[in-house]
Amino acid sequence: MIRCKPLLGTYVEIRAKNSSGIFNSFELNEVINEAFSAIESVQSLMGFHNPDSELSKINERAHIETLAIHPWTFEVLRIAKEIHEASSGIFDCGVGSKLVEAGLLPNHHAVPRQVWGGLTDLILEKPNHVRSTKPVQIDLGGIAKGFAVDKAVEILKAAPVDSGLVNAGGDMRVFGVEPHELQIRSPSNPKELISIGSLQDGAIASTSLYYSDTASNSSRSPLVNPMNMEQIEFIDSYSVIASECIYADALTKVLAISNNSSHPCFTQFSAHGIRIS
């Protein structure tokens, strides 16, 4: 069964196969609905564009008071800080202020310009509390999308669905005994698909400026180097294969910014980087 819904700023496709006959078509459809509901919950909790999301409340209030947050939000922030440390600061989703300044993200509540903190200023306290030593503009964006894909797969596997995939516009995770062919769009010609092999029980995330003129205009680039807070131009395609989509997505930023597929954090997270020029 194949279903598709507009979510996470893209189209999310879920494929689920039930060769064992445990479910009839109605029951399989209900499992897919549950997977979509999990994705919708992640979007509701961690969407930067939603001024009432939990993430927006963190950005607005965490430097003023300690906030109790949803376990999923806490987990995404924990992993974000883990990757931040492993990448020596190359990955930092605390760059939202730069994207707001560039007009790529909304300026909620007309927040004035100021000195912003980053992930290092965000303090996580168990159970599921967060505070910040400085005002922050955290943009979970891609890493939350990867997490949403993982949660959907978790629900499908627990059902149990034999095999399938969840694809959220460049963030994809597959599971089951059947390998899935991997194709990446050519950065010079997005209509051209480049085959890079197949994947079984794993995740891949890709980033590029497909269908965009932003490659020649850094003010519109969505990728920010946290070392100097400058948006970077890039014309290549960067992909990362990992066991979970949250890590695959976050590490595409490390690969694109460092241009180093041998960075130690790839080994730490058992990931593999692919650059297509």
TrEMBL record:
Q: Which reaction does it catalyse?
A: L-threonyl-[protein] + FAD = FMN-L-threonyl-[protein] + AMP + H(+)
Q: What keywords sit in the KW lines?
A: FAD, Flavoprotein, Lipoprotein, Magnesium, Metal-binding, Transferase
Q: State its cofactor.
A: Mg(2+)
Alphabetically, the GO molecular function entries are: metal ion binding; transferase activity
Q: What SUPFAM superfamilies does the record tag this protein with?
A: ApbE-like
Question: What InterPro entries does this protein map onto?
Answer: ApbE, ApbE-like_sf
Q: What is this protein called?
A: FAD:protein FMN transferase
Q: Which organism is it from?
A: Polynucleobacter asymbioticus
